[in-house]
Design a protein that fits this description.
The chain is an alpha/beta fold. Helix content is 34%, strand content 21%. Strand 1, helix 2 and strand 2 form a beta-alpha-beta unit.
Length: 247
């Protein structure tokens, strides 16, 4: 999903920078990282990034300050980084909620993720065979040995999130606090691996048609878009009203 979601990824990071939520020199862990992530973070002006991926032979091996680790049990203490960001990686995890928990645990201020959205329109697309349920292309790109679930050669289930699920998951991680979450969504159909190869082939090269389709969907049903970002604002969290109240 790197190509399709990259504009949203950069736009979210730029907005957070413009609003002062991210600082250009803040310590940032970039999860599920590859050369694409290095390009985007450098382009928006982030200067203090540590890159990590699921597999030691991933593209992150050639990045600055790169590490490989289990996204479900990262080798960092609580609040080790100001921010933890991840693009198109949680759906490659066998336990995506646990991987999100690790991002939350390690971050002091924010967690930023860009993933696939589970919406009525996307469920319809899957049921009609228009959108993929398992991600075969990434494994093919990895030569059949990587790019799948937990960085293996097994195609991963494309885990799609809803707003409600993200809220419930964060509330389960940190029940003693109210943690604001910002959501971003858009339709971006074209090179997205969430679509089946047959659908991509059918619409490939028809830029005007694709543009009209994306424009219409974003006008009529942007909230259900296939590209889905969320920013977990630990920096704005407040204690639950019942914290400290005697039983």
């Amino acid at each position: 999903m790197a190509e399709a979601g990259g504009g949203t990824y950069a736009a979210i990071l730029t907005d957070l920078l413009d609003r002062g939520v991210l600082g250009r020199d803040d310590a940032i862990l970039v999860q599920f990282a590859g050369a694409f992530d290095e390009d985007v973070t450098a382009r928006v002006g982030l200067t203090n990034c540590t890159f990590s991926n699921l597999a030691p032979d991933s593209p992150s091996s050639r990045l600055r300050r790169a590490t490989a680790g289990d996204a479900h049990a990262m080798p960092y203490a609580d609040a080790s980084f100001d921010h933890v960001i991840g693009h198109a990686g949680l759906h490659h995890c066998s336990r995506p909620h646990q991987a999100l928990h690790e991002m939350y645990r390690i971050a002091r201020q924010t967690v930023v993720a860009v993933e696939n959205q589970d919406s009525p329109l996307m469920r319809l697309a899957c049921s009609l065979g228009l959108a993929g349920v398992y991600e075969h292309d990434a494994v093919a790109d990895g030569g059949g040995t990587t790019g799948g679930v937990d960085g293996s050669g097994v195609p991963n289930h494309v885990y799609r999130w809803t707003r409600h699920e993200v809220r419930k998951t964060v509330a389960s991680f940190d029940p003693g606090r109210v943690v604001p979450i910002e959501f971003h969504s858009r339709w971006l159909i074209g090179s997205d691996r969430a679509l089946t190869p047959g659908v991509r082939s059918a619409i490939g090269g028809r830029d005007r048609v694709i543009g009209l389709l994306n424009g219409g969907l974003n006008t009529l049903a942007r909230s259900q878009g296939n590209i889905f970002g969320f920013t977990v604002r630990k920096d704005l969290a407040v204690d639950q009203p019942w914290i400290g109240v005697a039983a």
